[in-house]
Amino acid sequence: MPTMYGIPNCDTVRTARDWLQNHDVAFEFHDFKKSDVPRDALAQWTVAIGWEKLVNRRGLTWRKLAAEQQLSVCDAKSACALMLSHPSVIKRPVMDWGETATPRFTVGFDPELWNLMCTNPLQAR
């Protein structure tokens, strides 16, 4: 079963949840605010997606960071530390589409890609 990671009051997460429900896709929801960011999952996302795509540099959380803190995010290790301490800086939603030979993850909401992920279980990332 797919798992969506995010924050429930995020507009993109709400849109994505509605899309899944309207397409009869059962999923679990992991709320970063209530349950933190799972370290193991973050490590997997960083490898599969890349830390550059995971860090939302357009969001309010990023813009509120001190310039020194923004500049310190320069590799996977520093990005993961930031995402663990400030989960709202993660671009949302992060989807884990379920186990296959290759883990399948997406970040953000793209209806065309999501349709492909839901209809083609072999599709990777």
Give a short summary of the structure.
With 125 residues, the chain is an alpha+beta fold. The protein is built from eight helices and four strands.
Record field, number of beta strands: 4
In which range does the helix fraction lie?
40-55%
Return the CATH class: Alpha Beta
Q: Going by CATH, what is the homologous superfamily?
A: Glutaredoxin
Instruction: Give the distance, in angstroms, between the N- and C-terminal Cα atoms.
Output: 16 Å
- Strand percentage, roughly? 5-15%
Query: In terms of per-residue confidence, which ranges show pLDDT below 50 for 5 or more consecutive residues?
Result: none
Overall average pLDDT: 91
Radius of gyration: 14 Å
Enumerate how many helices there are, as a single number. 8
* Tally of discrete structural domains: 1
The ordered H/E elements are: EHEHHHHHHEEH
Shape, principal axes of CA atoms: globular
Q: Could you please say which CATH topology applies here?
A: Glutaredoxin
- The spatial strand order of the largest sheet comes to 2-1-3-4
Biggest pleated-sheet summary: 4 strands, mixed
Name the structural class.
alpha+beta
- Named CATH architecture: 3-Layer(aba) Sandwich
